[in-house]
């Protein structure tokens, strides 16, 4: 099993020196907001202010805070927070965007939700801004087929943390045509990555974090008629980092930003690209009775 980790080295400020919250970069402010939302102790939150965040000016911290949120809090978290982070780094675009999302857990997906992810990746001012988009040739989701899991180094007994139920996949509204077989560039490994690659002719960035591609992870924004205000409901707590490709690297290859090669040296693509369509093969299903029984048998349990 493979996964991705983000590390950044931030120098500690001089003894006795502490920044104010407003002095932090966008990354630092959102990290501190997330710490506050989690209810971390004040000494921990104060400790965040004792570091120099200048090294994160080209990054964004993206999070999902569990619960219901209105107004400014709604704008900072979940899918709405993602679109805000894209704009904060001046990555918004009206151009077509190529979007590739590697996930380790798949739920009940539909085109409406995926179009919202696509708009957030374009930097649309969600939830207010709406555009007509056609994502069928520009959005791909990477999740392994049953054959890929069976052929992995650990075999099917190693697939218990890669989750999908056939009832979602067999739904009439499920976007099957967007799915691709996740095959690691390191032969035999399965993936627990949650990575989103987004690029157009003028911008490219990657999200690396904990959020799978689901409404539970990114939230659902809607207009609350009772309170006459926009609201986002989030089930999960998630966080991740938005990492950009310097614009000058894109300018050096005009018209060629179509694959994941543009991210080389910034966020290495861990799966084979371009990837194979399912083409009649079934995805890996786990979390159903037959899979649980199979795992129990492999473990020697009754």
Automatic annotation (TrEMBL):
This is PLD phosphodiesterase domain-containing protein. It comes from Cryomyces minteri. The record marks 214 as: Interaction with DNA. GO terms for biological process: DNA repair. CDD domains: PLDc_Tdp1_2 (cd09123). PROSITE patterns: PLD. GO terms for cellular component: nucleus. Gene3D superfamilies: Endonuclease Chain A. Pfam families: Tyr-DNA_phospho. Residues 187-217 form the PLD phosphodiesterase domain. Substrate binds at residue 194. InterPro entries: PLipase_D/transphosphatidylase, Tdp1. SUPFAM superfamilies: Phospholipase D/nuclease. The active site is at residue 192. One of its GO terms (molecular function) is single-stranded DNA binding.
């Amino acid at each position: 099993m493979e996964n991705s980790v983000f590390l950044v080295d931030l120098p500690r400020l001089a003894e006795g020196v502490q920044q104010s919250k407003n002095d932090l970069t966008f990354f630092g402010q959102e990290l501190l907001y997330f710490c506050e939302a989690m209810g971390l102790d004040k000494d921990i939150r104060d400790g965040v202010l004792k570091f120099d965040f200048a090294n994160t000016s080209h990054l964004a911290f993206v999070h999902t805070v569990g619960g219901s949120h209105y107004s400014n809090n709604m704008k900072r978290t979940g899918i709405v927070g993602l679109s805000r982070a894209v704009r904060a780094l001046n990555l918004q675009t009206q151009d077509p965007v190529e979007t590739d999302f590697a996930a380790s857990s798949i739920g009940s997906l539909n085109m409406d939700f995926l179009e919202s992810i696509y708009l957030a990746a374009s930097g649309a001012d969600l939830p207010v801004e709406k555009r007509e988009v056609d994502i069928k040739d520009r959005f791909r989701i990477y999740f392994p087929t049953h054959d890929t899991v069976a052929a992995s180094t650990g075999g099917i007994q190693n697939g218990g943390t890669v989750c999908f139920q056939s009832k979602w996949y067999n739904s009439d509204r499920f976007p099957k045509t967007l799915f691709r077989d996740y095959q690691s560039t390191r032969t035999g490994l399965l993936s627990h990555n949650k990575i989103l690659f987004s690029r157009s002719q003028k911008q490219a960035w990657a999200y690396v974090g904990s959020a799978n591609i689901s409404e539970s992870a990114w939230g659902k924004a809607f207009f609350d008629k009772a309170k006459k205000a926009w609201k986002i409901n989030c089930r999960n707590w998630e966080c991740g980092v938005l990492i950009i490709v310097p614009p000058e690297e894109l300018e050096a290859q005009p018209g060629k930003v179509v694959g994941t090669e543009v991210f080389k040296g910034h966020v290495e693509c861990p799966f084979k690209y371009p990837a194979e369509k399912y083409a009649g093969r079934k995805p890996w299903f786990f979390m159903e009775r037959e899979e649980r029984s199979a795992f129990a048998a492999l473990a020697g349990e009754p």
